[in-house]
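Reviewers of the previous submission asked for a worked example of the structure-prediction workflow described in the proposal, so we include one complete record here. The input consisted solely of the amino acid sequence. No template or homolog information was supplied to the procedure at any stage.
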Amino acid sequence: MDWSWAGVKEVIGKAAPLLGSALGPAGGAAGTLIASVLGVEDSPEAVHKAIQADPQALAKLQAAEREHERELRRMVIEAETTRLTEINKTMRAEASAQDGYVRRWRPTFGYMVALTWLIQSAAIAWAIVSEPSNAAALINAVTALTPMWGIALSILGINIGARSRDKRTTAGQDGRGLLDKLMDGMGGKARG
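From that input alone, the workflow returned the following structure tokens.
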């Protein structure tokens, strides 16, 4: 097993999901908390050894998760907000670029995905109709393309969502994302 923080995150995440998820975006702070709860040095190897040596280690981490839940949630949200802010900066720079290709790569990608999907679908239909005995093998081959299409369509979906948000913002509507709204909601609870 990988005993980097990513490997530790996988083990801890099963027992203390919030603490495990904080290891990803909030990284160092969550790792320091885990190490201090277990009374070891702040390294994934030391935490790994402590988890293996102490049958109560995961229970201690669950208790720490309950005790520090609010701070952990805040750390995860802040880290995710920072990540999304960086993505938005990149997208704004692309939108304001003077180079036409930089501004139009997202729509071009969408059109190319649609065209590729159409060509592939037509080719599959033609292959099945022209040689029905190979239909089962062809369907299995198409199934192998699922990861490729999953990636392409995920990128397309993200692009569409980002463009929709940009249009809402331009139209004067609330363009904030889910995490921004959650942060507002948490702030409201803390004040109320």
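DSSP finds ten helices and no strands in the chain. We consider this example representative of the routine output the project will generate in years two and three.
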